[in-house]
Structures are given as C-alpha cells and as structure tokens.
Amino acid sequence: MAVGKNGVCFISYQYPTEVGEVVEEQVELLPFADIQDIFEEVSLLSIQNFEMYEDLTDMTLDVREIRFGYMLVKQPESIGGYRYIPVWDFYGIDWPIYGEGSYYPENRDEPVFTINAINGTVIDRWMGY
Fold it and tell me: What is the dihedral of CA 93, 29, 74, 81, to 10 degrees?
C-alpha cells in the first residue's frame, strides 16, 4: 500500500499466505530520523557491486520514493518459518557513470534499499533477511 498526502493512492495484493500466531504486539518503531541516519551511513553499500566494472568513474543512487510496509522474512532454523516485519523501503535509480562519461540508469520496480523499522537492521531483499 502506498499512502500520499491525500491518503491511500495504491494497493497491491499478491501472494496470500496463511497467517499464524501474533508473536509481538505493539512494537515500538524507530523514529524516521533514525532510519534516515542509517540510510545515509549504509546505503552506498547497496550499489558497491558496480565497482567490478573497471571503467566506472562515479556512482549515484537517486532515491525517488520511500514507503513504509511489511516484508516476509525467513527466520533462523531455531525459530523456523517466516515472519512479517515492518520495513522502510527506498525506491530509486542507480546512475553508474563510466570512463567515457556515459551513464546507464538502472530503473527498478523493487526497492533499492530496505531497513527494518523496529531495530534498524538493513535487509537484503535478494537474500530475504
């Protein structure tokens, strides 16, 4: 669900799951200022994989939208299963600039960066945790 200044502007319902027991109630979320600080400190790591290109001279991550939502996260073997957790997703475009000065924006429909809204850990969406 995406919410703008005028209310709900988009809802998507995909991949329904069987809901189990509630594990935690009324959890306290980190203030968004803390989420911003975490993003500023760690976000460049999300685009470091471009460093493998020898002619890369600069890299920019242009964040276009930030959404609050939930993510299904695999739990450790000792707990088992999956849990929905509240997250902040950052959507945007990668702008690599190569030696000859050209750039090839990487448009993404999925988040470029995800942060756990409860404890501030960074979540790798490809790995699922």
Answer: -150
The two structure tokens encoding residue 124: 């790798």
pLDDT exceeds cutoff 80 at 109: no
Question: Computed from CA positions of residues 103, 122, 67, 84, in that sequence, does the dihedral angle turn out positive or negative?
Answer: positive
43 contact partners, CB below 8 Å, separation of at least 6: 61, 90, 113
Rounded CA separation 37/4 (Å): 22
Per-residue pLDDT for 10 more than 90?
no
Q: Which of 126, 3, 11 is nearest to 73 (CA)?
A: 126
Name the 3-class secondary structure at 8: strand
Q: Is 95 exposed, middle or buried (0-12, 13-18, 19+ CB in 10 A)?
A: middle
Q: What is the DSSP letter of 62?
A: E
pLDDT digits (tens, 9 = 90+) for 33-53: 999 999 988 887 766 666 677
Which residues fall within 8 angstroms of residue 80, CB to CB, at 6 or more apart? Answer: none
Nearest to 118 by CA among 76, 70, 74: 70
